[in-house]
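User: Hi! I'm working on a homework problem where we have to compare a predicted structure to a textbook description. Could you give me the structure for the chain below?
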Amino acid sequence: MARKLRPEQRQPGEVENPECSACTREGEAAWYLNILAPHIQRAAMRGDAVESWIKAKRDEHDEASESWSTLDGLLDEYRLRADCGAPLDGPVPVEGGEDL
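Assistant: Happy to help. Predicted structure tokens:
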């Protein structure tokens, strides 16, 4: 009987047993996603790469332009989420108990 290989033991794209859900490309991707999940950023953080990228994109435009204003508003919201710990895909808590 062939030895069962874990995804990290196989070469990229190598499928041990196409009928085994953990041996398919999708199964392998799911396995790696489970390993990476704790390390994926789920909330905004001041000074992170995303904030820096939004700021750099905003600064490519003239301050009087609509693009600069739109990106500045996005940057403000990102910083608000960072300050209150709100997830990027959830509501922002506001004073008084209501969510935005």
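For your comparison, note the following. DSSP finds three helices and no strands in the chain. Helices lie at 25-36, 49-59, 66-84. Good luck with the assignment!
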